[in-house]
Write a structure and sequence with these properties.
The complex is a heterotrimer of chains A (289), B (272) and C (382). In chain A, 72% of the residues lie in helices and 3% in strands. With 289 residues, chain A is mostly helical. Chain A has one domain: MetI-like fold. Chain A has a two-stranded antiparallel ribbon with strand order 1-2. Chain A is globular and about 75 Å long. With 382 residues, chain C is an alpha+beta fold. Helix content of chain C is 23%, strand content 33%. Chain C has ten helices and 21 strands. In chain C, strand 4 and strand 5 form a beta hairpin. The longest helix of chain C is centred in the middle third of the chain and has 18 residues. The radius of gyration of chain C is 25 Å and the shape is elongated. The chains are: A mainly alpha (289), B mainly alpha (272), C alpha+beta (382). Chains in contact: A-B, A-C, B-C. Chains A and B meet through helix 1, helix 3, helix 4, helix 5 and helix 7 of A and helix 1, helix 4, helix 5, helix 6 and helix 7 of B.
Chain lengths: 289, 272, 382
């Protein structure tokens, strides 16, 4: 776009700015405002600086929830990314089945998140669920409401079921952009399947995979509904992640200050993770011309 | 190029991966359907009787079908707002260079990274303050936080794929900007708009937290109705499952309509 | 493969190719893309496949390389049937319309990939040798993203020659993506390399200039069959088929409807030459360079052996070896569409109006049902 600056274009952007300002900026400012105050009631406030932040960072429940969250995000990313790419590679690139396959793949992405939780709640129950029954029949006393390990396994299986399609669809769109000549050349070079993946497909998937990692990282970090419906955060608080902890704080206790500080920290952590990942990718790109 | 091309690692992929994954996706949904079509006694005892009573309950009980109506209304409002607002912005990003354009773009995207939980409190206060609490508009606007940046991103991608010569030709032909935009430009990015609707739907229809926070008894969305059912005494598995099945149907309809543009959509319009 | 101090000191021993009776139809297509096609390419020959888009060139390439299976007909490399062999087993390499390289590898690694079974030292020597010949030695440590389009295509060409036992190099319109000013340079480099190494190359193109300047022999592909195979000179002087005459040469051959009676070539009653052939209607063909024009005003009315025409326009074509050439567009009085004429005559003397066209009788050709008279046997069998 070697065009001269045209600042009248701001007119086009104005509606977006207004909406986002209303939806984001004002609430965020409110949150930041609350986070540095101790609010006794509507009219009584006290500026406390960074007190709430310090308290939150020292709160063992916060740190536990953060650790659980990092573990969860790490696990699901580690499964969903390779699996999604694997699935994408096995989708036919043309032919009459492609449309149908893409539709079926996209379905899990369009199910309300509480329904996702409900589906797996039912599916994994030892009494009326197919999975629960099957596993118990195989000899494992499976019960996700009683055992934290089982709860985690069910949660991970649910998230993989829910979101792998996103990675697969993103990767598929990247793969379809590869000209068939690249495959032909590789075949003539006698490349095997792994070499084709490594030398032809992977370099061209990098951009798409960055988007996939960013999206999954962000979204898994913000997850609330599905685990809430499936396990309610339990047994105990073994599956209580950050969003749920924050929600219970904000809604249940009306302690606006700490909740606000928590919110700001939460947002910053997500931003930090994304920034870390993004810059590492850019740095890597710097090594290649 | 030529069909039937035999190259390793590409078309002749291991289709068994796809089949296994498809099975993994299908089983829980099949199970849901089964529970929806059975009575609760059959479910708990392990037998099998087939009945449509659960679905009948949903269609006849206002709590349920109003829930659906409420959800559909705020999703529709959100989609209309998001697309309307995103179109001029995306056009601006695509066709013009202006002061701060790159920074604005990235700032917009960063809003997508905000955890909804962070906004519970301020949204509750904000929307109550302006009297929008417990209206579909509140949820629609709240969801805009996430759907608008994504819409701008997607639409910009699709618009950038349309050569600027089209704009120039229209200008030479003497068409005004509005005429060009609505009569000539929009039809060429029909697919992009469809994909945008898909992504708006993909966020707004499925979200619970904000929808729950900003609605009360007047506009209870279906997602809330379903979760409230769980906390009642004795869970009505059949009806719950039937409601679940019905919430999947709109999604299937939306994706079916845009299936031809899905690939371009996930490439965010930038198909090389 | 013989090892030497300079790896490519001796010529490569590549294959001789024989195709016969090759027929191919895409599933669901009404017409066959290739119909009963036969072709033979000599060892070490630079062979061009010339045809317009959609003539089946890419299909033929894919059949040669093994990317497409050949359902009917046979493909022989050095006398051995390769029909069942995969591309890697046939030892065929290909250069594509745009540079196809492994983006994440350096140029050296790209060159090394087809010969990865060789010891490292050997790989390095071969890569350096060909890189020097192609003028890309400086780029060996660079990734493709840092190269120009022409450099990338040169790497692709080099890579196609790296495999130690390569039997055949296919080139699918390799100059398409290059800017016009680079095409010539690429073509020269390719030609020199091919001659030095004695590589069997099949070069597919729709550009007849490329074909005629690159190849030892050219095959013209039209509607799924090879119309003619021959040296560039033969194709220009004695095209076997109307389409060859029309397609080869710029501008192409002129065609006039007429008939032969008792050995006289007649166009609307005007005699333009003599040919030994059976009586009957036919089309006469002559290249723009084979005719001269006499303007009526300078001579008496049309003399015997000329065709009355009306000059419509002239255009300068520039100079060839210092001699100005011009294009004259004329139309036979009897009407039949335009004839183009390339002449060294002074264009100023040629004005619109009646004129007499004289075709060199030694070069005049006649065609029936598309085939040059005397070549009918070729048309039916092939």
């Amino acid at each position: 776009m070697n065009e001269p600056l045209n600042n009248r274009a701001w007119l086009g952007v104005l509606p977006v700015l207004l909406i986002v300002a209303f939806s984001a900026v004002i609430p965020l400012m409110t949150v930041v405002n609350y986070s540095v105050q101790d609010i006794f009631d509507v009219n009584t406030r006290l500026f406390v600086g960074l007190d709430w932040y310090r308290e939150t960072l020292r709160d063992p429940r916060f740190l536990d929830a953060l650790l659980r969250q990092l573990t969860f995000s790490g696990i699901v990313l580690a499964i969903e990314l390779p699996l999604g790419v694997l699935v994408a590679r096995s989708i036919p690139r043309d032919g009459r089945w492609v449309g149908l396959i893409l539709v079926l793949l996209a379905v899990p992405l369009l199910i309300p998140w509480n329904v996702v939780g409900t589906i797996w709640q039912l599916f994994a129950r030892p009494d009326i669920g197919l999975l629960g029954q099957l596993v118990n029949e195989l000899g494992v006393p499976f019960n996700y409401t009683a055992s934290p390990a089982h709860a985690w396994v069910t949660l991970v299986m649910m998230d993989v079921w829910h979101w792998t399609s996103l990675v697969a669809l993103l990767a598929f769109s990247g793969l379809t952009a590869i000209p068939s000549a690249c495959y032909q050349a590789a075949v003539m070079d006698g490349a095997n399947t792994w070499q084709v993946f490594r030398h032809v497909e992977l370099p061209r998937l990098k951009a798409v995979l960055v988007i996939a990692v960013l999206l999954r990282l962000m979204d898994s970090f913000m997850i609330y509904t599905e685990p809430f419906v499936l396990t309610g955060g339990g047994p105990g608080n073994s599956t209580t992640f950050l969003s749920q902890y924050l929600t219970s704080m904000a809604v249940g206790q009306f302690d606006l200050g700490p909740a606000a500080a928590f919110s700001v920290l939460y947002f910053l952590v997500v931003l930090l993770l994304c920034w870390l990942f993004y810059t590492s990718v850019i740095a890597n790109r710097g090594n290649e011309p | 190029m030529s069909r039937g091309l035999n190259h390793k690692g590409g078309y002749k992929q291991a289709h068994w991966v796809l089949l296994l994954y498809g099975l993994y996706l299908a089983l829980p949904i099949y199970w849901l359907l089964r529970l929806a079509l059975q009575s609760n006694q059959a479910t708990l005892s392990g037998g099998a009787d087939w009945t449509l009573a659960n679905f009948a309950e949903i269609f006849s009980n206002p709590v349920w079908y109003e829930g659906f109506a409420n959800s559909l209304s705020y999703v529709a409002i959100n989609t209309v707002i998001s697309v309307s607002v995103a179109l001029p912005a995306a056009y601006a990003f695509s066709r013009y260079r202006f002061l701060g354009d790159k920074h604005l773009f990235f700032w917009l995207l960063s809003n997508r990274m905000a955890p909804p939980a962070v906004f519970l409190l301020p949204f509750f206060q904000l929307y109550s303050a302006v009297g929008l609490f417990d209206t579909p508009l509140a949820v629609a606007l709240a969801h805009c936080l996430f759907t608008v940046p994504l819409s701008v991103w997607i639409l910009e991608g699709f618009m950038s794929a349309v050569p600027k010569s089209l704009d120039e030709m229209a200008r030479i032909d003497g068409h005004s900007l509005p005429y060009f935009f609505f009569r000539i430009f929009l039809p060429t990015i029909r697919g992009g708009i469809g994909v945008t609707v898909f992504f708006c739907f993909m966020f707004s229809w499925v979200e619970l937290l904000l929808a729950r926070t900003l609605t009360g008894s007047e506009t209870k969305p279906i997602v809330v109705v379903m979760t409230r059912t769980v906390s009642a005494s004795g869970i009505d598995w059949g009806v719950l499952a039937a409601a679940g099945v019905l919430t999947i149907l709109p999604g299937i309809a939306v994706v079916w309509f845009v299936r031809r543009h899905l690939v371009k959509g996930f490439a965010l319009g930038r198909v090389s | 493969m013989v090892l030497a101090n300079r790896v490519f000191d001796r010529k490569l021993r590549m294959a001789e190719i024989q195709l016969s009776g090759l027929t191919f139809r895409y599933p669901g297509a009404e017409d066959a893309t290739l119909a009963d096609l036969s072709l033979s390419v000599r060892r070490g020959e630079a062979h061009a496949l010339l045809g317009s888009s959609g003539a089946g060139k890419s299909t033929l390439l894919n059949l040669l390389s093994g990317l497409l299976p050949a359902p009917a007909g046979s493909i022989f490399f050095d006398g051995g049937d390769v029909g069942d062999l995969e591309p890697w087993a046939r030892k065929v390499t290909q250069v594509f319309q745009f540079p196809v390289l492994y983006e994440a590898m350096t140029v050296a690694e790209n060159l090394a990939f087809p010969m990865r079974e060789l010891p490292a030292a050997e790989q390095r020597r071969r890569a350096e040798d060909v890189a020097e010949r192609l003028g890309i030695a400086v780029a060996l440590k660079v990734r493709p993203a840092g190269l120009t389009l022409v450099q990338k295509q040169l790497v692709a060409i080099g890579k196609a020659l790296m495999r130690p036992d390569v039997s055949l190099v296919l080139l699918d319109e390799p100059l398409t993506a290059a800017e016009p000013e680079h095409k010539w340079q690429l073509r020269q480099t390719l030609r020199a390399l091919q001659a030095d190494l004695g590589a069997t190359m099949i070069y597919v193109t729709h550009d007849q200039t490329e074909a005629l300047t690159f190849a030892d022999r050219v095959s013209v592909l039209h509607e799924g069959r090879i119309l003619q195979t021959g040296t560039p000179e033969a194709l220009v002087a004695t095209p076997d088929h109307e389409h060859v005459g029309y397609f080869v040469g710029s501008p192409g051959m002129n065609l006039l409807d007429g008939e032969i009676r008792s050995g006289r070539c007649l166009v609307n009653g005007a005699e333009i030459g003599h040919l030994q052939a059976a009586d009957g209607p036919c089309r006469f063909g002559f290249r723009p360079e084979w005719a001269t024009l006499t303007v009526e005003s300078e001579e008496e009315s049309a003399t015997a052996g000329t065709l009355p025409v009306g000059v419509r326009a002239t255009r300068t074509l520039g100079t060839v070896r210092g001699v100005p050439h011009g294009l004259v567009i004329a139309e036979p009085i009897s009407g039949q569409g335009d004839i183009e004429l390339v002449t060294r005559q002074d264009l100023d003397r040629i004005v619109a109006g009646p004129a007499a066209l004289r075709i060199d009788p030694d070069r005049l050709l006649a065609f029936r049902d598309g085939w040059r008279i005397g070549m009918e046997s070729v048309g039916s069998g092939s």
